[in-house]
Write a structure and sequence with these properties.
- This is Regulatory protein.
- It comes from Streptomyces yaizuensis.
- The chain is mainly beta and about 120 residues long.
- It is globular, with a radius of gyration of 17 Å.
């Protein structure tokens, strides 16, 4: 499966739509999926909105728990790659990233009353 790097700077505003959820390799036994390094894999749904376009939602698999990522928060995605997949007559694109982190709001510096 070929990985395709994604330039997140071209994706516009990225917001968390669904907070990180652990991904199961077996839903019946609740066995948690692990990556090659043994880290648990989490899934985060992120909205993507480019200028003048409709919002799209992508699900991104990330290794380990992503702290501070909550629904509605603007996020930054590091190391995003896409993978094309096919199983029989089903096909699609899946996404994986190194990390999803919250973008801290920029608070204006207070003038301190200086004129």
């Amino acid at each position: 499966m070929q990985s395709i790097p994604v330039d997140t700077a071209r994706l516009g505003v990225l917001r968390c739509a669904i907070a990180p959820e652990v991904k199961y390799s077996n839903a019946e036994t609740k066995e948690i999926k692990k990556d090659r390094d043994g880290n648990p894999v989490y899934t985060i749904a992120v909205t993507v909105r480019q200028d003048g376009r409709r919002i799209s939602v992508i699900e991104i698999a990330v290794p380990g728990e992503q702290k501070g990522v909550v629904e509605g928060a603007e996020v930054r995605i590091t190391g995003l790659v896409a993978f094309a997949w096919a199983m029989g007559d089903r096909h699609g694109i899946s996404f994986r990233a190194d990390a999803v982190t919250p973008v801290m709001p920029v608070t204006p510096a207070k003038n301190g009353g200086v004129a």
